[in-house]
Structures are given as C-alpha cells and as structure tokens.
Write a structure and sequence with these properties.
With about 250 residues, the protein is an alpha/beta fold. The chain folds into two domains: about 1-85 and about 170-245, Rossmann fold, CATH 3.40.50; about 95-165, no CATH class. It contains nine helices and ten strands. It has a six-stranded mixed β-sheet with strand order 6-7-8-3-9-10, sandwiched between helices. A four-stranded antiparallel β-sheet has the order 2-1-4-5, covered by helices on one side. Helix 3 (about 100-105) packs across helix 4 (about 125-135) and helix 6 (about 180-195) runs parallel beside helix 7 (about 205-215). Bound molecules: adenosine-5'-diphosphate and magnesium ion.
Length: about 250
C-alpha cells in the first residue's frame, strides 16, 4: 500500500477470536493533530481497535500504518517506542509514589540518565515534569502521594505519565468514566490542549463530553464503521440513533 500523510492509517483490519470477528475489515484514517472520538454500543469492538493499534492483540489480517511504519509486525514495546501511548480504562499509577515521582519514572529510558527510581535528575527530566504537571493541573500536588489524589486527578496523572514520553499518538479508553461534572470539563480542556501537538483517539460514552472534544466521530457497531464524520451529522444519522444514541 502507498505511503500516506496520515499519522495513522488503518486498512482492512480484521481480528477474529475463534471465528468471531470483533473488528471486521475496518478502514480508518487519523490526521496529524486530530482528536477522534470512537463511540458505539458495548461489544462494538472499540477497545479491541486500541488493543490492535498498541500491539496487545495481534490482527488476523489488514494493516495499521503509523507515520508509514507498519505496526502489526511490531511488539508492544516497539510500538510505544515508535510514539504510541495508550491509557487503559483503570488507571495504572504507582499509588505509593508522589505525583512528581510518577511523572519522573515515566520519562523515557535512553533519553536521560536512568536506571532506578533514584537516578540523577537531569535538568531535562525536571523541566519536563514541571511542564506536564502544569498541563495536567497537578502542579500543587507534586509532593502528594498518588494514592491520596481524587479519582479524576489519578486519571490526569496517568495521562501525564503518557505525555512524559511525548507520544505522536495518544489513545484513551473512557477517560472520564467516574469523574465529576467539573472534572469532565477540565478533562475536555486538557484534551483540547493536548491534541495541538499530537493526534488523539478517545473512546467515550458521555455525549456531552464527546461534543466538547471531537473533531470527528467514528461510530463502531459489530466491528464495522456504522457512521463517521462531524458530531452533529453523526447524531442525526438514523442508523446511529437506532443502534446507539436512541438507547
Ligand atoms: P467495546 O470496547 O466496544 O465494548 P470490545 O472491543 O471490548 O468492545 O469487545 C468486542 C467484542 O470482542 C466483544 O464481544 C468481546 O467479548 C470480544 N473480545 C474482545 N477481546 C477478546 C479476546 N481477547 N478474546 C475473545 N473475545 C474477545
Ligand atoms: Mg471497551
């Protein structure tokens, strides 16, 4: 297949679990600095698409090109190094470390003096931690043990840990689940800032939140694209109302 200007080009992607196609011949393109939201009913295959992109699940057929690198042949580790960051539904932070330390240990290996939690703090690491802490609204919590953060702040910390690696593509699975209304608004602001320097794929059910962030929406149903485009157009789509929004 030809090279593209897209950050991510998914073509004819299929994964079959014992004959059941969770993702079925999916083709989808993500632009540079695009924030795409993927919606759809439970079991539609949304999480599986992220699993395929980050290499957690291996495709049965098809192609995933990330800035012209074929990801389907790479390991999860190589995909992270290529510049893809992925946040799972449950936060995976180090509860007993401070916010500062959580960010610090997420600084990519090889880019600084590294090795253990007690590595020499290069200026680059310190300035990156401060920059990211500011972005994720945790500057005043840097010395706090992560366990003591609110649920929403923990989600932001994990986003910050991914941002420490400065990924070209960031993927978030249901980031505002369990958040307060205020935290949802703040998360929308955060994501709108983050996508200025990278592409972002978000899976989310909260339509008020989706409206605040989506450049385009992809509606998945039974592993296939049911509709794709601007939020207001997708919302009016009869098929989308029938299988998803109407419920
Ligand atoms: P969504 O995130 O849209 O709710 P998922 O991607 O989690 O949906 O799941 C899509 C379908 O694929 C579901 O029917 C699920 O049970 C199935 N599935 C997902 N991962 C696996 C797996 N590793 N093995 C077998 N079936 C799976
Ligand atoms: Mg899911």
């Amino acid at each position: 297949m030809s090279n593209t200007d897209f950050v991510l080009a998914i073509e004819d992607l299929t994964v079959s679990f014992d004959g059941f196609k969770a993702v079925d011949n999916l083709t989808m393109y993500i632009d540079k600095n695009e924030l795409r939201v993927v919606i759809g009913p439970n079991g539609a295959g949304k999480t599986t698409v992220l699993d395929l992109i980050c290499g957690k699940t291996k495709s049965t057929s098809g192609s995933i090109k990330f800035m012209n690198t074929e990801l389907t042949k790479l390991s999860e580790h190589e995909i992270v190094r290529a510049g893809v960051g992925r946040k799972f539904q449950t936060p995976s932070i180090y509860e007993n470390l401070s916010v500062y330390q959580n960010l610090e240990v997420s600084y990519p290996k090889g880019r600084g003096v590294w090795g253990s939690l007690f590595f020499k703090r290069s200026d680059a690491v310190v300035s990156q931690v401060k920059k990211i802490a500011d972005e994720i609204m945790l500057t005043n919590f840097l010395d706090m043990e992560a366990a003591l953060l609110s649920h929403g702040q923990k989600q932001w910390l994990e986003i910050g840990m991914l941002l420490m690696q400065d990924p070209e593509l960031l993927m978030l699975d249901e980031p505002v689940a369990g958040m307060s209304a205020k935290e949802r608004d703040q998360t929308a602001d955060l994501l709108n800032k983050i996508c200025k320097n990278r592409s972002v794929i978000v899976i989310e059910h909260d339509m008020e939140f989706v409206k605040k962030i989506a450049h385009k929406v992809t509606v998945l149903h039974q592993g296939k694209i049911l509709a794709e485009g601007a939020m207001d157009k997708v919302q009016e789509d009869e098929k989308v109302i029938e299988v998803y929004l109407g419920h």
